[in-house]
């Protein structure tokens, strides 16, 4: 119960990327995990995902996750905590790559806790737990424990860390709405009675504020998150 109260208090303090990383580092110390992390899968315009990482996930595992569709499919469609190795065990990526197999040992459990995100976004917590410190039958209980907390952690991420990326001005929203209907910058300039250069400026701001690489991706993010409304 004491652990739970401390965790809730720490979760309430998450208001930035740094504080989220600090929270994940605190978990390592509190529970003697080897490392901890949170992964957010953000939809992009080409049916792929922009993958965002927080915490202390090893770079070798990040490289794997970037290539691996199995963890994305699992976190998108399932809700039960699972050992990452169990997701991969029957996949081609595990069978065909010795380097992937070498990432996983019997001494450590990479526990994945799926999170049902906002709109088409989804996420997961991932913890490396020393196997010798935790009996196998206890790992499942640990997973369900974190599953209960994962929604609160993710909601703090959505509220406080992505908030600034969504602060489009009224004119920026007008430009991106017309762009979503297939209008060119010149056509938008005629509709809004502003210069084409100004339209391009507003659309560039939309791209930056939504953490996108193109206007198409910015449009998709707004649509998928239910934020592209008539203004």
Multimerization status: single chain
**Biggest β-sheet description:** 5 strands, antiparallel
SS content category: alpha+beta
User: What is the count of helical runs?
Assistant: 12
As a whole number of angstroms, the C-alpha radius of gyration is: 21 Å
Mean pLDDT: 85
How far is the N terminus from the C terminus? 48 Å
Q: What is the percent of helical residues?
A: 40-55%
List keywords for this structure.
5 strands; alpha+beta; 15% strand; 231 residues; elongated; five-stranded antiparallel β-sheet
Task: Please provide a written account of the structure.
- The protein is α+β, with helices and mostly antiparallel strands.
- It has 12 helices and 5 strands.
- Helix 9 crosses helix 12.
- The termini are far apart.
- 31% of the residues are buried.
- The model has no long low-confidence stretch (mean pLDDT 85).
